[in-house]
Amino acid sequence: MAKSSSSTATPTPAGPATSVPASYEAALEELEGLVSRLESGQLPLDQLLTGYQRGAQLLKFCRDKLEAVETQIKVLEGTELKPWAQE
Fold first, then answer.
1. Closest CA to 76 of 65, 68, 86
2. Which residue has the higher pLDDT, 6 or 59?
3. For 21-53, what is each residue's pLDDT tens digit?
C-alpha cells in the first residue's frame, strides 16, 4: 500500500542547473557552495562536469548583474564612474 518515493529521492541534475537565481546574493551563495563541493574532490566525474557548467552559468549571471549595476551608476553619476568612497 505504500507508495514508492523514488521520483523524489534524488533531484534531477537539469533542474537546478537551468534555474535562474532569485538574486545576485543567492547566485553568489550557490556558487560558493558549488566551488566548495567541486574542490572537495568527492564528486563523480559526471557531477563535476554538471557542477562546472552550473558554475559558469552562475558566474555569468553575477557578472551580468554587476555590469547592470555599474551601468546604472554611470547613468546616475554621468559618463564617468567614480570610485567608491568608504568611510
1. 68
2. 59
3. 999 999 999 999 999 999 998 889 989 999 999
CATH class of the 22-77 domain in this structure: mainly alpha
Q: Where are the domains of the chain?
A: 22-77
Q: In the 3-class helix/strand/coil scheme, how is the chain assigned residue by residue?
A: CCCCCHHHHCCCCHHHHHCCCCCHHHHHHHHHHHHHHHHHCCCCHHHHHHHHHHHHHHHHHHHHHHHHHHHHHHHHHCCCCCCCCCC
CB atoms within 10 A of CB 11: 8
